[in-house]
Structure formats: C-alpha cells, structure tokens
Design brief:
five-stranded parallel β-sheet, alpha/beta, about 20% helix, binds flavin-adenine dinucleotide
Amino acid sequence: MNYILIGNGVAGTEAALAIRNADDQGDITILTQSAHHFYYRPRLIEYLAGKADLAAFTLYNEDHYREKRIGVRLNTRVTAIDPEQGQVTDAAGNLYPYDRLLVATGADCFVPPIPGADLPGVFTVRGVTDCDRVREHARQAENAVVIGGGLLGLEAAHSLVRLGIKVTVVEVMDRLLPRQLDAEGASLLQKMLERKGMAFRLGTTVEKISGTRSVTGLVLQGGETIPAGMVVISAGIRGRTTLAREAGLQVNKGIVVDDRLQTSVPGIFAAGDPIEHRDRLYGQWPAAREQGMKAGQIMSGKDTVYTGTAPAATLKVTGIDVYSAGEYDSRVGMVEVSREELVYKKYIIRDNKLAGAIVVGDPAVIPTVRKVFQGSLPIREIMKVPHTKGGDMDKWECSACGYVYDPEKGDDVGGVAPGTAFEDLPDDWVCPVCGVGKDQFNKV
Ligand SMILES: Cc1cc2nc3c(=O)[nH]c(=O)nc-3n(C[C@H](O)[C@H](O)[C@H](O)COP(=O)(O)OP(=O)(O)OC[C@H]3O[C@@H](n4cnc5c(N)ncnc54)[C@H](O)[C@@H]3O)c2cc1C
C-alpha cells in the first residue's frame, strides 16, 4: 500500500505514525512545503519573544523518521491532486502515485480587507518564517498594534512586549476572549495584561493602516489614530482548502469529511485545521492531533470512527490560567462569585449541578472545578478551599510544549490519579498536551 500525506503538521505526522503502527510494509511519504521538520506550533509564541530555540520544540529528528521508515520531503509544495489517476503533482512537476491520500494542509491566517494591510511592516503569525520576519522588523519598531484580542492576538502582543515594544491591542468586541469569559472575567484579565504593559482599544474597528513605504500607524473607527511601527493581524484562520477544491472534493467552510475522516472522494482523507466535520471547524492542536491519529488508523484498515473532540476549556493566556465551561456567561440560576485581588471565580449552580464556570488566576482550583463540571466530583467540592500546598514529589516539565506534570493533580487525560509521582507513571504515558514520551520531560 502506498500512502501519501500532504502536510507535516500534527495531523499529517500523527497520521504517518499511526499508519506505521498498523502497517509494517506500506510505503509512507509526507510531502510538505515547510522547510522545517514537525514542531509544536503553539510554542512559536515563545520563539517570537526570543525565549525558545526551534530545536527545543522540534518534536522528532531525522533518526526518528528513518527508524519508522517514513519519508519526509521538505520544501515540496503540492500543486495538484488527480483523483482519477490516483496521483499528486508538486511544484517541480514530480508525480507521486497513491493508494490512500491524506490532505492535512493546515490553515492560513485570515487578513480582513483593511486598506493598507499589504504595507511592509504588517504581519501575520503562523510559522517559523513569519516569526523571523516579525522579530527582524521589531528591532526598528518602538510601538506596535495587534489587531484581534483573541487568544493568539493576546499571546502575540505579550511576545512583542517581551521584545521591549509598546503594544496596543485593538478588538472589535467590547471585551477580551468573548468566547471564554463574561464581562467581569474579561475585565480582570485585561487589568492583569495592562500590568504586563499592554494597552487596549475595545469595541472598535480599524478603518485603515497608514504609511507610504512602511506602516506608520492606524486610524480607528471614529478617527482616533495610533502610531505603530508595525502591525500584527490576528483575526482568525482559514483552512487551506484550494488543493482539495480544485481536485473536485466537496468543500464547504472546510473540506467536508465523514466520521471516517474520508472526503467526498473515496481513498482521499483529510484531517486537522482544514476540515469540516459534522458542520464543525476546530483550529486547535488537540483536535488536529486526534483527527490525524484516527485518519492514519482508518487509512491503514482499522474499523474505527471519529466523533469529534471536546473543546479545550483550560487555557494559559500569557501565563495566566483561565478556565471556562458550560453557560459561563449566564446569570440564570444561583451564581456564586468570588472576587479577590487578581482572582475571579464564578460558578453557576442549577438543580445542584454546575451548569457553568469561570476561573481566572487560580490554577489550583481548576482541576476540581473541571471534575465537578464533568460530573466526576460532587458539587460541594468546589466550595472547599483548594489544596494548594506542594508535596514532596517533583514536578516535571515537557521540553516540547511546556506542560508541567504536577503529581498533586495527576493527569485527567491519561487517567493518572492525583498523588502519582512522575517516576511511577507507566512507560507508555505521553504528554497529555503534545503527545511526546516521558523521556522528553525534565525535572522542574
Ligand atoms: C502561534 C500559534 C499558537 C497556537 N497556540 C495554540 C494553543 O495554545 N492551543 C491550541 O490548541 N492550538 C494552538 N494553535 C493552533 C494549532 O497549532 C493548530 O490547530 C495545529 O497546528 C493544526 O495542525 P495541522 O496539522 O492541521 O496544520 P499545520 O500545523 O498548519 O500543518 C500543515 C502543514 O501543511 C503544509 N502544507 C500546506 N499546504 C501544502 C501544500 N500545498 N503542499 C505541501 N505542504 C503543504 C504546511 O507547510 C504545514 O507544514 C496555535 C497556532 C499558532 C500559529
């Protein structure tokens, strides 16, 4: 069996590994336009701030692919898929026949049609090269504007602040992270970020980006001008669907796949950021990882299905812990709010159940709140003072993604009970965030 996978992000790479697990004989080739081997994309934010080298979050080296007998062709852009002939073509005209094909082409940043968005000094952040360009330009910029106050926009803004630049974030909604926080939680987060040196303009839009040879500033709706030596646009993503569309695959908002992650053309599968599954688009690492893994299993003959990925509700926003779940914005039902300096907790309790919750700035309470929300702990547990005192056991940090294994908390995802020392974790335990093995962890 000849497997071709387009894209070496988490979806393509996990698919290749799953195929090799199930099919020892098949030929597996990853074609990617990237110049870099597979890396943990969320850590680009640290790379942007000059706080991590690419090698620190490149997940597999050449030896790993050799050992698994997976061919990876870097700098190879696929330009066409021909389902009738069962082959793909790259930009140099090479042909690659396949029996099973995976389209795992990821996404591009969305750039809204703002006049001046094409000026030098205006950037988006998706890959290593984008970060290199931003850092190069940042040397000569004193101030910057980030358009978009979602998770990625805030992270990018924080990275620029760490580079010594004065940053203003412009957001069309009247609060930060509107899909995760209510007005009060968002306002606390804003206050914490202001202390880190960021400024905000909320509930407004950008009329134009000004400048002649390079960007010099922005004009907001209503006429306010903000000086800016550079602009980073973080206004969401759009799946890379052109290849699929041109090959005649059904594309709606994303490449349409069924529960077997198969596209409208038999033998062609898709996974990761470009797909639309049960009317849903994800754009998140854990979803792309699960889809890639499932697609690989299915392509190599396993009788299994993908039914969706539960949305991640625990976030780290510029180092601040944020959790939100269920009807987080509701005021209906008993609302238990606790406000302290730089901590906000809100629980919506109805029929003796936790119908929704927000926690900002108190990481110790989050595992308990999550379990109560999921129904595995009784409601009274969230009213108890959380046990924050550290024990004698060490914490261990994942060198790939920065996740910290805390023995006090265990690992929900991997089914590890609180109180389990790192040394006692099973050998096949993997990082619940990025999926690397125990050997990639360092003692904190
Ligand atoms: C800065 C940043 C921070 C993020 N932080 C988080 C986070 O904290 N939590 C979270 O859940 N998610 C986060 N994400 C989103 C997450 O990284 C993505 O959801 C995930 O990487 C998607 O994986 P993928 O394999 O679908 O696509 P990608 O990782 O985008 O990989 C797609 C690959 O396909 C290749 N490709 C595309 N077109 C072609 C072609 N025609 N020919 C050959 N190759 C092609 C590309 O070069 C690329 O290598 C972040 C993203 C960014 C950019």
